[in-house]
Amino acid sequence: MTSNRRTFAIISHPDAGKTTLTEKLLLQGGAIHLAGQVKARGQARRARSDWMKIEQQRGISVTSSVMTFERDGVTFNLLDTPGHEDFSEDTYRTLTAVDSAIMVIDAAKGIEPQTRKLFEVCRLRSVPIITFINKVDREGRPGFELLDEVADMLALDVSPQSWPVGMGGRFEGVFDFASNTVSRPEGGSREFLGKREDDPSLPEESAEEIELAKIGYPEFDEEAYRNGDLTPVYFGSALKNFGVTEMIEAIAAHAPPPRAQPAGDEQISPDRDEVTGFIFKVQANMDPQHRDRIAFMRMVSGTFKRGMKLTPSGLGKPIAIHSPILFFAQDREIADTAEAGDIIGIPNHGTLRVGDTLSEKNQIRFTGLPNFAPEILRRVKLKDPTKTKQLRKALDDLSEEGVIQVFYPEIGGQWIIGVVGQLQLEVLVDRLAAEYKVEAMLEASPFSTARWIAGPEAAMKDFEQFNRANLAKDRDGDLVFMAKSAWDVGYQEEKNKDLTFSATKER
Questions:
Q1: Counting CB atoms within 10 angstroms of each CB, which of 60, 327, 343, 388 has the fewest?
Q2: What gap in Å lies between CA 345 and CA 296, rounded to an integer?
Q3: Residue 206 to residue 351: CA distance in whole angstroms
Q4: DSSP string, 205-254
Q5: 136 in a known ligand binding site
């Protein structure tokens, strides 16, 4: 049964409180039993979704993890998206695998650039959004100002579902519109410990604001929300537990169950009998004790059974999936069955790659998981030249994960690494050393971007003949034009009308 599945992501600007909200949702769902504030008591208390060393050092989420929990008969699949602006590519792929999202906004800062960028990705894929305005226990901007900013900047109808009773030093709780109750802070830490007032006495200013919020904005409309036209807005404090239960209940009650997924001109319904899914992420070495490699598959249709044979589109021959994994925070369980909307991990040794479709009949191909043209290109230089073989293996693994892209120049031997953002370079160097014992440096490259080339055979041959010094092959053997500047790309496009120079490549 797919209707009890809710597969969602949390999107935000760094430091808006996404990691804390993730952790509190997992606590409420019983997936973890220890609330660990970021940097509260050293590394042992990092949030459960942030497991990579570089994440722990910098306090950001770098990789997308999957966390499954159950509550009141609903299975929640929470996909943790990288919160750093450099990770738009990995985040984009994660958002292809969800049916809805929670957008976290800092009450003091409002909508920040990264939030807006991630929202646009959601809009591109018609992913409905629930908004959580966080940190109302601290000084913040007025509630109406924040609501109007969401409405104006994101061109969305907003429908407040709760309201802060004061903010910062005057914070006295959160009023819930549906139940007409106030969640009150308690104890020295002023957390929400479960005390709700059914017949609240509110300060006059708060009572007036609540009345204005109720009549001044549209009522919640589930159809408008699911179409991506309206966002319900909840105020709260993830750190102090205000609004966390309401978030889970809103996702359970209103977020869509598994949706149809695009496969060219066709939409594959979750009701289809055939088992189908797509790989949106590959992660190596999640467990440092075992050099494992997990492909994350979003189930699109059918009922998967352990041991079943599925055919990856990139391979063409069936593989038996004997040890599929479900993720409960950092704990794993072997999955005997999985339904549409579930995320399962498939251990493999390089067989599965990001963008692969897995299916029983091998007749469909899911679309919309592209590679993006890199914005930063670097050469890799080994500190120990005898480790060339290990470097090649590492770069192959990391490019399969989508952390980097590797380009092999037609002339010259030095491989070129392409990334979308600067942080990916730091992750690359860190993981080369930690996981592959390869010490490497990154040097400037003569190129600034790349474009995939396609066109008639004769035109391609002519182009290759005159531009060999600027050509490379990607890991699939496809031809790439390495450009020194955006002007360079424009000039070649103008000069070679028969060729297309693409900034994306469908997997």
A1: 388
A2: 5
A3: 58
A4: HHHHHHHHHHHHSPPP-HHHHHTTSEEEEEE-BTTTTBTHHHHHHHHHHH
A5: yes
| 47 carries a ligand binding annotation | no
Residue 292 labelled as part of a binding site: no
Residue 237 forms beta bridges with which residues?
242
With contact defined as beta carbons under 8 Å apart, do 364 and 266 qualify? yes
Q: Is 18 annotated to bind ligand? A: yes
Task: Determine whether the annotation assigns residue 81 to a binding site.
Answer: yes
On whether 367 is known to bind a ligand per the annotation, the reply is no
241 known member of a binding site: no
359: β partners: 276, 311
Query: According to the annotation, is 13 in a ligand binding site?
Result: yes
Q: Is 12 annotated as a binding residue?
A: yes
pTM of the model: 0.80
Q: Is 83 annotated as a binding residue?
A: yes
Q: How far apart are CA 414 and CA 378, in angstroms?
A: 10
Give the type of residue at 292.
D
Taking the mean position of all CA atoms in its chain, how far away is CA 19? 13
* Structural domains of the chain sorted by starting position, each given as residue range(s) with its CATH number in brackets: 5-65+101-256 (3.40.50.300), 262-359 (3.40.50.300), 370-506 (3.30.70.3280)
Residue pointed to by tokens 């600034």: 448
Residue 244 annotated in ligand binding: no
- Block means of pLDDT (10 residues each) for the chain, 507 residues, are 84 85 84 47 43 51 66 90 60 87 95 83 88 96 96 95 95 95 93 89 93 96 96 97 95 96 92 94 65 85 94 87 77 85 87 89 86 86 89 84 86 84 81 88 91 94 93 91 93 94 83
What pLDDT was estimated at residue 16?
A: 85
DSSP per position, 300-341: EES-EETT-EEEETTT-S-EE----EEEETTEEEE-SEE-TT
Q: What is the pLDDT of residue 291?
A: 59
Q: Tell me if 303 is assigned to a ligand binding site.
A: no
Is 75 marked as binding a ligand? no
Task: Say if residue 40 carries a ligand binding annotation.
Answer: no
> What pairs with residue 101 in β-bridges?
9, 129
Q: In what order do the strands lie in the sheet with 416-419?
A: 440-444, 376-382, 416-419, 405-409, 471-473, 479-483, 449-454, 500-502
82 is in an annotated binding site: yes
- For β-strands 157-160 and 230-235, DSSP reports them as parallel
Distance CA 86, CA 94 (A): 14
Burial level of 482, CB count in 10 A (0-12/13-18/19+)? buried
Q: What's the chain's length in residues?
A: 507
